[in-house]
Task: structure prediction
Amino acid sequence: MSKEEYGGVKFKTVFVQKPWLHHPFLEELKKWCAVFHEKGLSPPYPGGSYGNLSFRTQNNSFIITGTSIGLKGNLDNTCFVEVTHCDVPQKNVYAKGFREPSSESFMHYIIYKNRPDIHAIFHGHHEPITQNAVVLGIPETIEKTSYGSVALAESVLKILDHHSFIVIKEHGFVSMAETMQQAGQQTLQYLQELKNVMDL
Result:
């Protein structure tokens, strides 16, 4: 996986409110952020981590990790943002919270919009999974795209279909499920499958 150097979000954030977020599922999201950190699924960079996790709140709205935070334990509610809408053509993201949402908010929005069965999206970065998509039987996007771009979101949409786990070419993976538990466990299962393949 060739990590593109992080240079901030590629959209304009329009804050519709700046409330302290409260949601009964936030504690579970924090737990999975810590798991992704501990398992090397969201490697750190100076000032943050590669990767972003979200869950659907209503319609196509979702709570997602904020940009430039380290996905680790002891995150507080200000580390999360609720995205209420995305105007993809205008590159505007409408949000509630205290910080800008993750740079991959377009991708999360497009998945939720096109897959009403999906209620949790975990996007991580793990080079062995990314490099072994074919061996693991994981669908992969056709061409390399820039992080945080509409092109990346559209490349995911092209292969989305009914899949629940995909690889973004030379970038990372996306685990999607009805619940956060399922999205997280699915990722851990692929980690174990990878270990089994590499031990052969």
Notes: The chain has one domain: 12-199. The two ends are 22 Å apart (CA to CA).
